């Protein structure tokens, strides 16, 4: 027996979950209706056809990324917090982000984070071209890091032995601690935070204090 109580938000939430897990091709009206325990006609009544549903999911994704809020005691720390939040959001919904990109709304999706970054760059004392360069550099760092992470996840696992890391090295003798660390699995979150903090600190220069690790 088909259920009668259904909301548009329920439909969008379930559709988003299907896309997140299986990609846009897995989202059919019949499958969505089955997930919700309702009739296909009920789905059409709430969200229209499949293209309208996809448009609604894109708008929902754009709205989700607009909810990023800076945290921290200094502009540098708050810039790092925006970068971390943006990375998390992009990592959490790759299929939905791809849909936004395919519909030509990438710039709109990044606009809220860009505004937040611009505000903190201004608070750090930068203006004009230099301020724009900082905002763009942070955005590129986030997007580039996410792309590298995804490529690594799709590639076969690679765990070189410690001796392999130094076959062509010029350091003599090798640094045992460094060798062990390089042979260990990468912590993507820690690597990202380290790189973005270094980037922000270098770009702000004398206009902003060194980011406080406790604020990240």
TrEMBL record:
Pfam families: TetR_N. This is TetR family transcriptional regulator. It comes from Streptomyces zaomyceticus. Residues 28-47 bind DNA. Coiled coil: none annotated. Residues 156-167 have a biased composition (Polar residues). Residues 5-65 form the HTH tetR-type domain. Keywords: DNA-binding, Transcription, Transcription regulation. PROSITE patterns: HTH_TETR_2. Residues 151-175 are annotated as: Disordered. The keyword DNA-binding applies.
């Amino acid at each position: 027996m088909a259920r009668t109580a259904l909301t548009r938000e329920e439909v969008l939430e379930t559709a988003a979950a299907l896309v997140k897990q299986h990609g846009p091709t897995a989202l059919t009206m019949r499958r969505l209706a089955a997930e919700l325990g309702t009739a296909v006609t009920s789905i059409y009544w709430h969200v229209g056809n499949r293209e309208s549903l996809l448009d609604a999911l894109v708008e929902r994704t754009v709205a989700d990324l607009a909810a990023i809020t800076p945290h921290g005691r200094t502009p540098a720390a708050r810039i790092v917090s925006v970068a971390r939040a943006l990375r998390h959001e992009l990592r959490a919904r790759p299929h939905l982000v791809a849909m936004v990109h395919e519909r030509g709304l990438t710039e709109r999706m990044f606009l809220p984070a860009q505004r937040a970054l611009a505000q903190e760059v201004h608070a750090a004392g930068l203006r004009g071209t230099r301020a724009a360069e900082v905002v763009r550099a942070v955005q590129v760092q986030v997007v580039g890091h996410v792309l590298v992470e995804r490529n690594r996840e799709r590639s076969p696992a690679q765990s070189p032995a410690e001796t392999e890391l130094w076959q062509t090295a010029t350091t003599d003798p090798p640094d045992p601690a460094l060798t062990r660390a390089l042979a260990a699995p990468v912590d993507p979150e820690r690597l990202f935070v380290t790189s973005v903090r270094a980037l922000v600190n270098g770009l702000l220069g004398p206009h902003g204090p060194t980011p406080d690790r406790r604020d990240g």
